[in-house]
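Batch manifest, entry 17 of 40.
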Amino acid sequence: MDAGKQTLQEAVQSFLHELADVRLASEHTVSAYRRDLSQFIVHCGADACVHHITRTEVQDWLVAGHASGLAASTLARRLSAVCSFFDTAVQSGGCKSNVAAGVRAPKQAKRLPRTLPPEQTTALMQQTDRVSDHRDLALLAVMYGCGLRVSEAVALNVSDIDLDACELRVLGKGRKERIVPLPAGAVQYLQVYLEDRDETLLPKSDAQAQAIFLNKHHTRLSVRSVQRMLKERALQTGADMAVTPHRLRHSFATHLLAGGVDLRAIQELLGHASLATTERYTHLDIAKLTSVYDQAHPRARKVK
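Output type: structure tokens
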């Protein structure tokens, strides 16, 4: 079909296909774009021609969202999705210009990411009588010790870990690979867990054999399971019940920064494409930052 005659529904489906199969965006990203653009389709009408949609319609959609009580962050995300969609439509000839370009996103209040103080992470790392305790401790040590996204942690394979070199290979957003140092404490937790895994958690299939973190069904651990595990563990150990995988990641960055690690080094460790994203972790005046990783990170030291 001529791109200039595509309906909005057809153009969105084409865009999502390119996002997933050509740009190799993560499932989470594709899902978020699909959700936001589906709402835009409802607003404009599925049969609307892409090249007939106006800037006013984009603005009216955002105003309607604001009136319904949507947060500024949600509206900003919606606008970003529509901007990306129209950029692609212009490139494919579906419309002459990006009608969403230049539309101002709602101003968002600047917030510092919520973190856990070191004593809370220590509480989470207490040994428990949970059957999965070895796995959970290793997972927590890796997530907090390396600042991983939960999706990155559950996607880890055995081949991604080099215990001798104390390094971890991580596949981040956009399937970008990065190498991060593995703290000595995390190495010890992993050694204990991997021995236990090899003896009692044999994977069900060759496809699962590469996964490091397995559930009770001997298949790869899911993101939802990790979130649930954190809540249960916090309840059992007396740690902050507001703990989430992302708060562990925020804590990793904040604690390193407080220990004197360079902001650009933290950017590399977190896998941020932009330094501006990393800068959210501080409102401090950063001068010379010279401390090395093992000196700065609270869990870089060996387990006693």
